[in-house]
Amino acid sequence: MRGGGNMNNMMKQMQKMQKKMMAAQDELHEMTFEATAGGGMVKVTANGKKEITDVEINEEVVDPDDVEMLQDLILAATNDVMKQVEDTTNEKMGQFTKGMNIPGF
User: How far apart are CA 15 and CA 72, in angstroms?
Assistant: First the structure.
């Protein structure tokens, strides 16, 4: 019967960790991230769910003869904001997977 107490304690610890993980994930989902390109000419906003929520383009950068530059600026800002979300996700959620060999974390 001695092992039963350890199992109960371990289950309680896992439940505590799960609650903390859910709270961290909720906090992350509420966060907003912004990235700019072209000296602020293009701004992309995303949330912690890895969803793009806004794209702002300064009209000065809109040149019908150079659409490729605008596309590049949008890509740069989008990639930057998604990296911010990914880095923050890894930072916040990584504390729960340290020392564990879990694929995807």
Answer: 46
